Structures
1.
Amino acid sequence: LRTNPAKLLVVGYVGYMLAGWLLLSLPFAHEGPVAAIDNFFTAVSAVSTTGLVTVDPGSNYSFFGELIILLLIQVGGVGYMTIGSFAVMATAHKLSPLREKMARAAFALPKDLKPGHFILTVVIFTLVCEAIGALALYFIFAGAGQEDAVWSAIFHAVSAFCTAGFSLNPNSFEAYSGDVGLNVVISALSLLGAMGFLVIHDVWRNFTSAAFHLGFTTKVILRITGAFLFIGTLVLFVADPGIAALQPTERLLAAFFQTMTATTTVGFNTVPIGALSMSVLMVLFVLMAIGASPSGTGGGLKTTTFAALLAIMRSTLKQRSRVRFFKRPIAASRLQAAGASAVYFIVLLAIAVFLLGLTDPQFAFDRVVFEVISALGTVGLSMGITGDLSSLGKLIIIVLMTAGRVGILTFGIAIAMHDETRAEEEDNELLF
Amino acid sequence: LRTNPAKLLVVGYVGYMLAGWLLLSLPFAHEGPVAAIDNFFTAVSAVSTTGLVTVDPGSNYSFFGELIILLLIQVGGVGYMTIGSFAVMATAHKLSPLREKMARAAFALPKDLKPGHFILTVVIFTLVCEAIGALALYFIFAGAGQEDAVWSAIFHAVSAFCTAGFSLNPNSFEAYSGDVGLNVVISALSLLGAMGFLVIHDVWRNFTSAAFHLGFTTKVILRITGAFLFIGTLVLFVADPGIAALQPTERLLAAFFQTMTATTTVGFNTVPIGALSMSVLMVLFVLMAIGASPSGTGGGLKTTTFAALLAIMRSTLKQRSRVRFFKRPIAASRLQAAGASAVYFIVLLAIAVFLLGLTDPQFAFDRVVFEVISALGTVGLSMGITGDLSSLGKLIIIVLMTAGRVGILTFGIAIAMHDETRAEEEDNELLF
Ligand SMILES: [K+]
Ligand SMILES: [K+]
């Protein structure tokens, strides 16, 4: 019996969400009563590493509850690769050459890595980054006199690396907007998580081995991430009246952090998002929708998808018959996947805004669009309406967070199958 | 010397816009003083058949001024095909086979039609439709006691068929929201213009000749236009509180007319757009962005582009290796053009909203997004901010109206060149 791995992946994610809901519903998981819809919302937000919250996690959940949230984040973030691999492996006792090829394509593994070994390496890389980050955060939090500095350091380090953006502080890191140390540590963790092990691995080998050169995908990811950070910081520094009113250092930090938080889809914030100007909101919309890189823990359409879309536009404008990017032709299947992801994103965005207009008509258009893009991109930033949504509104956001995490990956797996023969492909169609 | 036809087309359009500006600047063109930027805005809005206005045309321009506007609309609407053909012809004394092939591809001409003959046919078709429409409108306006019923009937008939949406009434057709005759005549003219001669020609032959079957493109256009009108009317009928408060007949007319005005990109309205609910605005955003059909006078990304985008998404989701629509494979160049147009549309939308956030920060996000999509799709509906924009804001809208009309067509021409040989293509690249 062969089953579609994309379906198994979705089932796997939903399973973790339901298990998380169950655990968060246990009486000793909260400090006071939390509604069932809010526990479900928190579980989905954690597994999808979105970070949107309808109730403040720090004051509403017990240590046990916060531990569950942390584990869900860790499973969701790292599992973004591993659960998928398990789902593929579940269809066969051992990986057949075809299945292995699919797994490689779907999770962008380099040819010299075995999936099992790869998962272990990712887990070790994750734990090392998080441990170093937690240590650094401990000194910052202890120095600032934050209570439970140890737990807070661990929680926020994991939340940052997994680009979840869950915070135990009611206002995220708004109290640390001028703290250089916190800005650096959280940004470093988020960027490492968002770019992912493969990119870091590639960069590391580039520095240590004279014979090794950066792969094409790594180059694209590094250049686009760099360009986004630079342009975003510049625009937010100049164009937002609220940020411009800060002291020079804090202003630069705030401009960089809010850009970083959108492009890595981590979703922490150091200034109130609801007070940003329309121009800056538009920049954040674009950054959040494009999101992070395919080999990391972040969400969104992915920088590589953006590269493909940009290549389609530029090559068409320049009247080239072949779509190229950095002088390299891009495969038709890749272009199709990029186009499909973007269309799917816009379709979900439009339907969600339409439905939220019916369920929660009191909110302004920009706040609703922000919430929807934030959920679809698994970012977790909000202009402040999440907790005030109706139950139906919360359910819509729950669906978006799930689709945002699972949907785009599903596209990736689907397109990986396109390398199969015609007979294989028709076989797969019948199995749907 | 060979010149790029896309560039010539843009130059041609901008030439008409500047000529229109000059004529509208003549002292006897207005009733009172009109600022230079507003005359320019009106000229660009007319040539691009958008219909956005910063000053009310009926009270600010003299009969001469209104006549100029009408001629600009006529040139812009019908010229959407013909100016392009002239631009292509200008590069060669006679149409070479290659150029003729390009013109056919760019303007979707069937193989048995000669361009010269085609233009003449389109002009006759246009004038006949407009004359019948004007006659019908005359009886409606005269019956309603509208002053200058003859001129008003001619003006609105041309404005409807060319999907320009310019009105001599300050509130468009809000006074006629319950008038069945006006709703039918304006809708018929707009739909004829928006679908275009080729579709009508195809449908006509399908009815008159037993041997003739509808072409694939015609089928796609008819089905999508029909589906949009049905779904849009249903949604607006049910989901908008303002429309729901009307009497049953007027409610149905209003739901249909506002759907029709968005999907044909004509831009007349019978209810105030600024009072519509967020859900309905979202529907209008989608309809306006997709817009009309490629062989008509309307704007937007086009229904055929929408079909291609939908096909990319569905085929990818269904894991087909070939993108199909209605069981027909779609050419890669067509898919590329559709993707490029959509990306280009979104890039322009994001940049425009960003800039308008800087030039006109006092307006709410939904009103600005509405204005931008309306301009890019050459629709002309507005939530009421057009006249209150700053001069820089007006200039941004002017650029959008020009890009909306010229840009997407430029993509079409660009993609038509992809059928050329590699040597031809490189030749073209050098000429850029
Ligand atoms: K997040
Ligand atoms: K229009």
2.
Amino acid sequence: MASFRKVAMLKVIAEDFIHPEAVALVLPLYRELVALTRAEPLCIAYDLLIDDRDPGHFIFLEEWPDRAALDVHCATEHFRRLVPLIDAHQRAPGRFTFMSNSVDPA
Amino acid sequence: MASFRKVAMLKVIAEDFIHPEAVALVLPLYRELVALTRAEPLCIAYDLLIDDRDPGHFIFLEEWPDRAALDVHCATEHFRRLVPLIDAHQRAPGRFTFMSNSVDPA
């Protein structure tokens, strides 16, 4: 059943829930993470947005060629150094959604 | 505090949670919704992805110039006709995230 289409890449939504009082602390960490990740050769897209209704809810919209590229990202020095520093200010566990298929017009 | 940047558009993540047995029923409705929405003059981006770990979890990644444009979308004939037909197969309420600010490298 060709009801949906395998996309040529892996899309990821990675959501962090940060204590409101720690937002100013994590912003420079996030800025460094975005800069260094966008410089990775396998990174297609890596945007970090903020929920309009919750300033501690940070949403990464990511695109990678495949799961192996995402694994390379998660093993980088900057990821392994910065993510634990950010996660120390979580108010709830992160939420991760992986998407390899899209629904497209016939 | 210029810690984050107002993006030039409104990004939206709209998530539907559909009963597994209804996925085949909603796919043609989604395909029509994507086709007609992409044809709207104010639509910047409107992609529909499927959660790799939950085939009933459908995720719209949307970009609109502003909230007014999103309101126009929600008032179209195709939205008002198709969304209730899709929502009839929901197993849980939809989740909507609106994002007008991004975190960018310095």
